[in-house]
Structures are given as C-alpha cells and as structure tokens.
Write a structure and sequence with these properties.
Layout: H1 3-17, H2 28-45, H3 52-69, E1 73-76, E2 79-82, E3 91-92, E4 112-113, H4 123-128, H5 130-146, H6 152-161, H7 166-173, H8 177-193
Antiparallel strand pairs: 1-2, 3-4
Length: 195
Amino acid sequence: MDTIQAQRELIEKLVKSNNKFRGNEDLLEDFCSETYERSHSLFDSVEIKDIEGYVAKVVNTAILNVLKSNGRVRRRENKYVSTKEILINPMPVKAAVEQETAPAAAGAVDSFVYEIEDPKASFEEKIVRKDLLQKIVDIVLVAQKNNPTKEYLKIFFLRYVKELKQKEIAQETNLSQSEVSKRLVEISQIVKTHF
C-alpha cells in the first residue's frame, strides 16, 4: 500500500471517530486537508503506527480550526460552543385533493416548503462576530441609559448572552411575552440604526 494512501486513511479514520465530526460531515475534506497540513512533516520522519495518538490530537485541533473558519463554533467562556445553523430541509407539500388528470399534468412542478428563517441579515448573526459585539453592547447601554424603565440591557443579556426564549425572559422580568417581543424588536431597531 502506498504511504500517502495509508496516511490519508489514518487521518480520515481519526477525523470520523472525533465527536466534533458528527453534524459536520460536509467538511470531511477540509478536516483531512487541515490535519495533513499540520502533520505532514511528522509523517515523513516517523512510522504511521507510532504517531496515531499524536495525529488524533492534531485532528482535534484541525477540526476546531476548520469549524471556526466556517463560523460553526465560537469561543465562549474559555470553551468552544456550536453556533446555530439554519438547515434547509425541503418537504414536499401535499395537495389537499389528489389530481387525477391526463399526462399533461405530469410535467407539473412539485411545490416545496423550506424550513428556513428570513434570509435578511439578522441581529443574532451580527452578535456572533466578536468585533461587533462591543459596539452592540455599547449601543444597548446607551439605549438603557436613555430609557431605564425599558430594561433593554437585562432583556438583551437574557436573550443574546444567556440565550433564553421570550417566554423565559417574560418570567424573569415580570413582563408579558408580547412586551418582551416588542422590546426585543426595539433593541434590534436601535442597534440597526447605528450600523
């Protein structure tokens, strides 16, 4: 067996056995390439059977690096956490009444419903970027200072830092869920006006 092929098989095996690989299978080639780049000089100097444990550690680092560069993880409180992804899962729409017509209808296009959020740039996506986080916090602090009764800072913290749902925020703040929703929209509009 050719040594390059053996190296590739070892790297691929270690990548697939890493727990961060699950859910990110589409990045297999990126994980393998990154791992090879980080360990190719080692492969040239040591036998494959002697370095499997070390390469497993390199795989873990390479996977984290690829996931960070693809925006799938971010660092929070000295650990990496997954960012939420929008998955597109087409589901055929069933017609209420089955049409039994001639072959002319056979060329009709099936309708699909996609489970995705509005494609507009969302406020939450901007928070993920670290360079904007401080600016956003500063804007919310000013909004809180200008409207202390609105509790913008507390609502912002509960929603975007603690990642609570509106219902949970309503319980924490003793507000109605509709009022929490309204204030989240206000926060979003305030932040958007400053960008």
